[in-house]
Design goal:
Layout: E1 4-9, H1 13-23, E2 28-34, H2 38-48, E3 52-54, H3 57-61, E4 68-71, H4 78-87, E5 91-95, H5 102-115, E6 119-122, H6 129-139, E7 146-154, H7 167-170, H8 174-189, E8 195-203, E9 233-240, E10 245-251, E11 260-267, E12 271-275, E13 279-284, E14 287-291, H9 302-317, H10 327-346, E15 350-351
Parallel strand pairs: 1-2, 1-4, 2-3, 4-5, 5-6, 7-10
Antiparallel strand pairs: 7-11, 8-9, 8-15, 9-10, 11-12, 12-13, 13-14
């Protein structure tokens, strides 16, 4: 059996999750790793058994032995590398977000369709076991018509700095880094309705809060508290053409009591929470029931979610199934993210369609 030869472009922290998942898939050979820092690429190659290392992604893509790539680079290079990869005949798994702008997303979509290759966007929450379970309830109508969702991901202290805090490289702050996950998860569970309008706000009040002592948080390798060009907080109301709505708020830093992540959806027959854990609300015999599914993992399992995502990508590369997070979905989520930023900048609601 021919194994799928994988190249990983970008050897930062998220690449370890990709590489670890690939290493556990028996149909994969980790063939090459590329990073601007050649020494870091070699270190990762030694750990995961990759035969080849590169400092230029174009050289990696020129290798005809490589079947598919994971793109784990800064957000501002996602579009460029994705387009080059599919044009080079490679299948692509690109970390979220798909890119920085709607215009870039349209170019990526065009290149993917022209190439006939698979491009899977790294919406990893779609591949969680709790998402699969809830989807079964939704698909058979247990929740009825889903008309409202609410998603929150608040950090009280957690601006990672570095490229995360550099708008030029990242495209934004907590909205494009954290909000992308919970917005996509809600939108996916709601049946992926078309966006009608967005009203959003962003705030930059607290920065990196380097003055705080005695409370640790993740910092990027190039953390510098004096450099921050992204928002602290974003919130939005998104309205869809089918009448449904989604309310979202996300922060890197906020004067909040504690970190908070909640994702809730509401239908005319029932409701559900999927963050912080799977929970279903329904009605039987004129009585409201709060239902806790008896499953191994109520919360999102980070390791298993990524493993499922990688396994699904390989199955898609081999033609066994279509990807669950195609380029078209990446484009629609970019419309929502950029729409929130645009609405906040203009100070008014924006319309689509």
């Amino acid at each position: 059996m021919k194994k799928v030869k994988i190249g990983v472009i970008g050897a930062g922290s998220i690449s370890d999750i990709h590489l670890g998942s690939y290493s556990r898939n028996p149909e994969v050979t980790i063939y090459a790793i590329c990073d601007l820092n050649g020494e870091r690429a070699k270190q990762k190659a030694a750990v995961y058994g990759a035969e080849h290392t590169y400092t230029d992604y174009r050289e990696l893509l020129a290798d005809p032995a490589i079947d598919a790539v994971s793109i784990c680079t800064w957000n501002n290079s996602h579009a460029e590398i994705s387009i080059a990869a599919v044009e080079a005949g490679k299948h692509v798994l690109v970390e979220k977000p798909l890119c920085k702008t709607v215009e870039e997303a349209l170019r990526v979509e065009h290149a993917v369709k022209k190439s006939g290759k698979v491009l899977q966007v790294g919406f990893v929450r779609r591949y969680g076991s709790n998402t699969d379970i809830l989807n079964r309830f939704i698909e058979v109508g247990e929740l009825g018509d889903i008309y409202y969702a609410k998603a929150t991901c608040l950090r009280r202290l957690g601006n990672p700095g570095g490229w995360f805090a550099d708008k030029e490289r990242s495209g934004g702050g907590p909205l494009i880094d954290l909000g992308v996950h919970i917005i996509d998860l809600c939108w996916y569970l709601m049946g992926k309705p078309k966006v009608k309008s967005i009203s959003g706000n962003t705030y930059n009040k607290l920065g990196n809060r380097a003055n705080i002592n005695n409370l640790s948080f993740y910092k990027a390798s190039d953390y510098d508290s004096s450099k921050n060009t992204v928002e602290d907080l974003a919130n939005a109301m998104i309205r869809f053409e089918n009448g449904a709505s989604l309310m979202v708020d996300v922060s890197f830093t906020l004067h909040a009591k504690q970190d908070e992540i909640t994702v809730k959806i509401f239908g005319d027959k029932g409701g559900a929470e999927i963050e912080p854990g799977l929970f279903i609300v329904t009605e039987k015999h004129d009585t409201i029931l709060n239902v806790t599914p008896q499953v191994d993992q109520l919360a999102f399992d980070f390791t298993n979610g990524f493993q499922n995502e990688i396994n699904h990508f390989i199955d898609s590369c081999l033609g066994r199934q279509e990807t669950r997070s195609p380029v078209e979905d990446g484009l629609e989520v970019m419309k929502m993210l950029c729409g929130i930023y645009e609405s906040a900048a203009l100070g008014k609601e924006i319309q689509f369609g």
